[in-house]
Structures are given as structure tokens and as C-alpha cells.
């Protein structure tokens, strides 16, 4: 038993526990740990990705503001998401008929299914779920125009294999494959630990889609504990208005997300960031 830390800009974010797996895939260093407080967890290149008793703080805010507001949610695409939590939350929506998930690192999926099976849950065996181990950037580029109702980017920090998920070309391709009435969403880093990256993502999505806004919440194990997800749409900020019958079907099983929480998350933008975005 010892401390497992992520170090970021002179600050350490750690859990007490044991390292169960430490290996290097062709893409990154993968660590699976077992902690006293948050259960089993996953790190990529030394950065916290998820843990059994923290994952809902991340997955619910990424998925439900998008899937409860898009005009249709029949076809959904996840880029990344190898632990399976985003897929699990998407498949709670019965209107989803086809879910593609494109994860670049197959070992992340294998180790998550072996050591963190509760995170993906029944998603791995759901007939609506289609997993591709491959390059998500290429998948988006090769997809037909207007082929998805919702596109979710569940990537790690903009470095290593995820670096291409946070640039204009990729976002423009995501807009191209989004159907009318669709919603795009991405994790958009901590407004404290990654302030410049966070603001740049929001600005760029506004330029590409026309409408984009950050939602703020917390993932205590991540740097600063304060996190964000940014939602975008072409036809107005539809991501702010959950469709009540759709929300009612999934809300009772949520621990974090609700329509009320969502309203608060969008309204929780710090004034200094609001001013910075107004001066774009």
C-alpha cells in the first residue's frame, strides 16, 4: 500500500492504494490501481482517468446534457471512452438504436473489462453497441455527412494519442457528420488546472458550431477537482433545454446529473472566464 500520484504544475493529486497493472501499450503507459477510497482506478501516462467510485461524476455530465437535448438520439458516436462508462450511460437511453465507439488503444478496453467491469457494465454485450479499435480522427473524417445525432469526445488530456481531438480540423469534421438538431460534446479540462486550454476549446467550438457553452462540475480525483464539459450545436443552444420525457426516463438512476443540476452547471461559469469568452 502506497501513494499513487498524478503530478501537474507543482501539485500532486493522489490516492492511497496498490498498483495492480503497469504496462506500456503501443500508445501510452496504462496503470490499473486499487485504492482505499475510490476502489479500482485507471491512469494513462500517469494521469487519472477514472475510478469505480468517481466515474459517475464524469460520465453523467458528459452524456446526459447531450442525449436529453438532441432532437433525435438514434445514432450516437463516442470517440475514446475505453473504460466503457460513457457507452453505459448512452445505452440507458432507449431511443438509442446504434452506438459506435472508436477507441485507439485496445489494451485500455481489455484492462477495463477485466479489472473495472462495473464501469462498462452491460454496455459491452448490448446489441446496439459497436466497438472499433482504431483512430477516432480517421473515423470521423471517413464518416458520411450528417450520419450521427450526437457526437461525444471522451478523450484524455490534449497530449499523446488524444492531441488531435482538440483542433479546428477535427471539430469541423464533427460538425459535418452531425445531423440537424444534433449535439456535440467534449470533456474540456479544468478551468483552474488547464485554464488556457479550457478557454481555447470553448472559443474554438463557438467558432466552428456557432453555439457552444461550458458546463462545470467536479471530479474530485482530477487535477483541482473542478472539471468542465463543453456542448455545441449549430441551431442554437439546444443543449441547455432537456426534453422532459427523455430526462424522466433516466434521471432516477443518476447520482450526479439532473435537469436542475444541469442548469446550475451551465450557470456556474466563473465571471472571469465569462468575460474572457465575451472578449473573443
Can you describe this structure?
With 280 residues, the chain is an alpha/beta fold. The protein folds into two domains: 2-51, Spermidine synthase, tetramerisation domain (Spermidine Synthase, Chain: A, domain 2, Roll); 55-278, 3-Layer(aba) Sandwich (Rossmann fold). Helices cover 32% and strands 32% of the residues. The protein contains ten helices and twelve strands. The chain has helices at residues 55-67, 85-91, 106-115, 117-120, 136-142, 168-177, 195-209, 244-251, 259-267, 271-278, and strands spanning 2-8, 11-24, 29-35, 39-44, 47-51, 75-80, 98-103, 129-133, 148-154, 178-187, 211-218, 226-233. The chain has a seven-stranded mixed sheet, sandwiched between helices. Strands 1-2-3-4-5 form a five-stranded antiparallel sheet. Strand 9 (148-154), helix 6 (168-177) and strand 10 form a beta-alpha-beta unit. The radius of gyration is 17 Å and the shape is globular. The N and C termini lie far apart (48 Å). The model has no long low-confidence stretch (mean pLDDT 95).
Task: Briefly summarize what is shown.
The chain is 32% helix and 32% strand. It is of the alpha/beta class and 280 residues long.
Q: What is the molecular shape?
A: globular
What is the alpha-carbon Rg in Å? 17 Å
Count of strand segments: 12
Domain unit count: 2
CATH topology of the largest domain: Rossmann fold
How much helical structure, as a percent, in the residues?
25-40%
Amino acid at each position: 500500500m502506497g501513494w499513487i500520484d498524478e503530478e501537474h504544475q507543482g501539485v500532486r493529486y493522489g490516492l492511497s492504494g496498490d498498483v495492480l497493472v503497469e504496462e506500456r501499450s503501443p500508445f501510452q503507459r496504462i496503470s490499473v490501481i486499487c485504492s482505499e477510497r475510490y476502489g479500482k482506478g485507471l491512469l494513462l501516462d500517469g494521469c487519472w482517468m477514472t475510478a469505480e467510485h468517481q466515474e459517475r461524476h464524469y460520465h453523467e455530465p458528459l452524456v446526459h446534457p447531450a442525449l436529453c437535448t438532441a432532437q433525435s438520439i438514434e445514432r450516437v458516436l463516442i470517440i475514446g471512452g475505453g473504460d466503457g462508462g460513457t457507452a453505459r450511460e448512452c445505452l440507458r437511453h432507449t431511443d438509442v438504436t446504434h452506438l459506435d465507439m472508436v477507441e485507439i488503444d485496445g489494451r485500455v478496453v481489455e484492462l477495463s473489462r477485466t479489472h473495472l467491469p462495473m464501469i462498462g457494465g452491460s454496455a459491452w454485450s448490448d446489441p446496439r453497441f459497436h466497438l472499433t479499435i482504431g483512430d477516432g480522427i480517421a473515423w470521423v473524417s471517413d464518416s458520411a455527412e450528417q450520419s450521427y445525432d450526437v457526437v461525444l469526445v471522451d478523450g484524455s488530456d490534449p497530449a499523446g494519442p488524444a492531441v488531435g481531438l482538440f483542433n479546428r480540423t477535427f471539430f469541423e469534421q464533427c460538425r459535418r457528420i452531425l445531423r440537424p438538431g444534433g449535439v456535440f460534446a467534449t470533456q474540456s479540462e479544468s478551468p483552474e488546472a488547464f485554464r488556457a486550454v479550457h478557454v481555447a476549446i470553448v472559443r474554438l467550438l463557438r467558432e466552428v458550431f456557432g453555439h457552444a457553452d461550458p458546463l462545470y462540475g467536479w471530479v474530485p480525483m482530477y487535477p483541482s477537482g473542478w472539471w468542465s464539459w463543453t456542448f455545441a450545436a449549430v441551431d442554437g443552444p439546444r443543449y441547455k433545454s432537456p426534453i422532459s420525457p427523455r430526462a424522466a426516463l433516466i434521471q432516477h438512476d443518476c447520482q450526479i446529473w439532473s435537469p436542475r443540476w444541469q442548469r446550475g452547471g451551465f450557470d456556474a461559469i466563473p465571471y472571469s472566464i465569462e468575460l474572457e469568452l465575451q472578449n473573443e
